[in-house]
Amino acid sequence: MALKAVHVTDVPSLDLVPENPSLALCSTRFPNVEMSRSGFKMPKFVVIGHRGHGMNVLQSSDRRMRAIKENTIVSFNAAANFPIDYIEFDVQVTKDDYPVIFHDDLILTEENGTVSGKRITELSLSEFLSYGPQSEASKEGKVLLRKKDGKVMQWDVEKDDSLCTLEEAFVKVAPTIGFNIELKFDDHIVYEQDYLVHVLQAVLKVVFDYAKDRPIIFSTFQPDAAMLIRKLQNNYPVFFLTNGGCEVYEDVRRNSLEEAMKLCVENGLEGIVSEIKGIFRNPGAVTKIKEAKLGLLSYGKLNNVSEAVYVQHLMGIDGVIVDLVQEITEAVEEMIKPTKGSDGGEGLTEGSEKVQEVNTKPQFSQQELSFLLKLIPQLIQM
Q1: What is the pLDDT along the chain (382 residues), one digit of tens a residue?
Q2: What's the pTM value of the predicted model, to 2 decimals?
Q3: Do 91 and 99 form a contact (C-beta atoms < 8 A)?
């Protein structure tokens, strides 16, 4: 049965928010996120698993990029075995109003030697789930392919799993793991507001029914969707995704950290998720974003390099989305070790905890850090 569209009047709105709203997201892994009119505060440096345990790069020589099928229950639970705070995944809505988890705009298969693709939004739920491995052993799914840089490849990974819905993720993934739900839309389509509202309501219906105390962050590259998801609910923070100027789009709101900050401030969004190269090319923007009381997360290949992650911690970035979940969580634990109730030492203070710096991390004076931040943009351009 298809989900019924939720009427706008049935969804919490900003007009109903009390004078001093706050968000208490419960997790045994990290303290509560704070969200209020005075700004968004992440209580600690967070690590987020990209599409679960990491995205798939099928052409990569690195086996880790082909270890587990991305955006699947198996991938999410594999990531949950490590001390991460959230998993990030991509949500689209089928034509019969079911939110499903899949990254690409087109899902590809091959029949009788012919490769064909369909948009997720053109498929019913049953059609979507017919691709790839099936949850029932007696069924055989359609061959699942992927196109990258003009080349079509079979989606072969070491540990495969069936495609899944947003509802399944809530039911089958440990409740202590936060969800960074990326609301996925095609960059090349101009969407009508009524369509966006309908899609977002379908997603919110599942979130409100199943989230319970699970920490949730919404994010999207689609500026209008970011504004609408904020207007439709005030329970969960909304972050605007941007390439930070690494790519140029027709919609100018997507073309710089400054434009992202403007969109967030003017529309009451809680933060920005930027390609890390965009931040490293423009490190001065971090101070401006923090002065605007916005959260700042990053994504990108450089986040799989522990030294780059540590520099971000020093810069005041709130967290990183990573593919190499085990390696980066281990590195972060070594570089930043919180000790409750510690009386001595200098350490950084975050919330009620003192963060004790350990010997395995690099040591920088303020002068050296300033030099490094001036040098990084030049290196990124090379």
Answers
A1: 343 333 333 444 433 333 333 333 333 344 456 665 556 778 899 999 999 999 999 999 999 999 999 999 999 999 999 999 999 999 999 999 999 999 999 999 999 999 999 999 999 999 999 999 998 888 999 999 999 888 999 999 999 999 999 999 999 999 999 999 999 999 999 999 999 999 999 999 999 999 999 999 999 999 999 999 999 999 999 999 999 999 999 999 999 999 999 999 999 999 999 999 999 999 999 999 999 999 999 999 999 999 899 999 999 999 999 999 999 999 999 887 654 444 444 433 344 444 444 445 566 666 666 656 665 665 555 4
A2: 0.83
A3: yes
Report the distance separating Cα 193 and Cα 232, nearest Å. Answer: 13
